[in-house]
Amino acid sequence: MVPTHRRHAKGTRYLGFLCVWCLLVATLFFSLAGCRPPNDTAPATPPGTIEIKGSDTLVNLALAWVEGYQLVQPDVRISVTGGGSGTGIASMINGTVDIAASSRDMTSREFEAARAAGMDPVEFVVALDAIAIVVHLENPIEQLTIQQITDIYTGRITNWAELGSYDRPIVLVSRESNSGTYVYFLEHVLRRDPARADARFSPNSLLMPSSEGISTEVRQNRNAIGYDGLGYVTPDKKVVAVGLDPEGPFVLPSIETVRDGTYVISRPLHVYTTGEPVGEVREFLEWVLTDGQEMVRELGFVPLD
Amino acid sequence: MVPGTSPPVRKRMEWVIETIIRVLGFSAVGFVAMIFVFLLLEGIPAFVRVPLNNLFDSLWYPSLGLYGVLPLIIGSLLVTVVAMLIAFPLGIGTAVFVREIVPGWAREILKPLIEVLAGIPSVVLGFFGMITVAPIIRENLGAPTGLTAFTGSLLLAYMSLPTIITVAEDALDAVPRSYRDAGLAMGATQWQTIWRVVVPAARSGILMAVMLGMGRAIGETMAVLMVTGNAARIPDSLSDLFMPIRTMTATIAAEMGEVARGSTHYHVLFGVGLILFILTLAITLSAASVMFRRRTRGGLR
User: Fold this and answer.
1) How much is the pLDDT for A298?
2) Which of B14, B230, B236, B266 to mutate to test the interface with A (most CBs of A within 10 A)?
3) Measured distance CA(A219)–CA(A224) in Å, rounded
């Protein structure tokens, strides 16, 4: 045991010790932070590996491509992660992935950030997709105009009865704001009419962190309306036909109607690279744009012509 | 050990071990301090870059440059307070039951079971909430959707119960046996002794149990992200408890992956983290002050 009269002296020693310790750790911390190279333009991953990250809509398709590509090029290791288009593009700009998968165009702000990091992003259209409007199977609604969809999602129409369906409140289901589907839906549906350029989602919208969340809620809840990529629509939900004009025509999303442009809520799916692709990345993307298009159809998306 | 009797080598060893233990002890404090400094560095720019009337507004649309954090703060507080209203009577009741009523052999079974509850991963509870609890709430309580503030509160109450029960039980355990004997000797029934003597004597420990449970609830992320619906709206009536809500933790978890480092949105998310940290700190500090008061008074009233 330490004699008691020494304890008081120890208290001040602790204080001095703490100061020295903090200084030491702080120095280490800031010197480490200072060491990080701000503009690293070298390839994000070691040779022989490709990192793809981004759109949740594209994840399953990208995984199918990777599986198919393994049969052709077994030496190249490719990993795929989701997280949303914004996440993928941010990772590409931060230099942690080679390819960003995105279901929307890169914004001018993102282009600026990429250039500031010494990159010159190149865009490739790899498939086409349609956004389907889905409701519960028991909902009698068959068709909606873009105008009506906008009124629903901005909170002007709050009951299904106003649309000639059953008397139930409408529950809006949306993706989180980092999803490319969210941005596309906002810009090409809610703000399609130039007079509504400042339209936004009603604050009552449920923001789901995944496609699966939307799927579960719409399948279970008779009040719900949701939107999601065509490739994610399963038979346990009802797809609504969409038209521009209240008189029609109303069109259901399908490969044919997306290709000929009669289904209005459709979009190209992109991948972005940090610059003109070279080596393994280039070979992989060339394969995706040719042989890889078979898998696009299998997964419910629309292949390029 | 008397100074002077041990050989110098042994003394040096003693010093080395003491120093190692001291470094480890201080590093905990140091890490908290560093996290706080990091949060400050990353979070403060939010309060500079975004005008305060935008920041403390009710519109949270980060993709449109609207960073109103008010719905997130109120959302977190609402979910946490309701969770505590549910967990408090259940937790204290269970602690009293386990400590004062059941025979010893049953206590030996119940206590480990309660501790197992604390080990269930929150994502599992969140999934359970989304698939099982949400439909029950939608169909039986007349809510338009099952993903509501109340669903989140139920799950959080469940998650904070093990903490509350364990700490409250320890507090009851610390009440001297003579208190119970005195109560019974005065002619009080067992119930009267528990309710009028034992529980009041342990009240500071019980309060601390609730504070710690609250700290656990307000910082919980995964389960609330999955079951509260994440709609950034300000609840303005009691029935809004059965409407979706968006919490601070869920917002950070859902949006942090998307943001470019150094953007306004990035700093605002750290600012939200800072607010959350300060709230949690306030809860923990008040719990600590309650504990300190108990120690100085020796738990006796």
Assistant:
1) 81
2) B230
3) 8
pLDDT band for position A297 (cuts 50, 70, 90): confident
Unique residue bearing structure tokens 């120890």:
A10
- Asked if B145 lies within 8 A of A22 by C-beta distance, the reply is no
Let me know: does A197 contact A165? Beta carbons within 8 Å.
Answer: no
A143/B contact by beta carbon, under 8 A: no
Token pair of B299, please?
A: 């738990």
Cβ–Cβ pairs < 8 A, chains A and B: 106
Exposure on the CB side of residue A78, measured as CA atoms within 13 A: 26
* Residue-wise DSSP of B26-58: HHHHHHHHHHHHHHHHHHHHHHHHS-HHHHTSS
Distance from CA of A226 to the nearest CA of B (A): 13
Q: Provide CB contacts within 8 A for A40, sequence distance 6+.
A: A95
Tell me how many degrees the CA angle B222-B224-B229 measures, rounded to the nearest 5: 120
User: What residues form DSSP beta bridges with B67?
Assistant: B60
Q: Are A131 and A166 in contact (CB under 8 A)?
A: no
**CA proximity to B98, closest of B108, B88, B107, B109:** B107
Handedness of CA A70, A76, A77, A82 (dihedral sign): negative
A207–B contact, CB cutoff 8 A: yes
Domains of chain B: which residue ranges?
52-296
Distance from CA of B20 to the nearest CA of A (A): 12
Contact A298, A125 (CB under 8 A): no
Encode chain B (301 residues) as per-residue pLDDT tens digits: 455 556 788 888 999 999 999 999 899 889 989 988 999 999 999 888 888 888 888 889 888 888 999 999 999 999 999 999 999 999 999 999 999 898 889 989 998 999 888 888 888 998 899 889 988 988 888 788 889 999 999 999 999 999 999 999 999 999 999 999 999 999 999 999 998 899 999 988 898 899 889 988 998 888 899 899 888 888 888 888 888 999 999 999 888 876 777 888 899 999 999 999 999 888 888 878 877 765 555 444 4
Q: Is A106 on the interface with B (CB under 8 A)?
A: no
Nearest to B275 by CA among B78, B42, B111, B51: B42
Give the pLDDT band (50/70/90) at residue A82: confident
Q: Tell me how close the Cα of B296 comes to any Cα of chain A, in angstroms.
A: 20
Q: Is B27 on the interface with A (CB under 8 A)?
A: yes
CATH architecture under which domain B52-296 falls: Orthogonal Bundle (1.10)
Structure tokens at B212: 């710690």
Task: Answer whether A17 sits within 8 Å of B259, measured CB to CB.
Answer: no
Q: CA torsion angle for A269, A271, A276, A278 (degrees, to 10)?
A: -120
pLDDT tens-place string over residues B1-20: 455 556 788 888 999 999 99
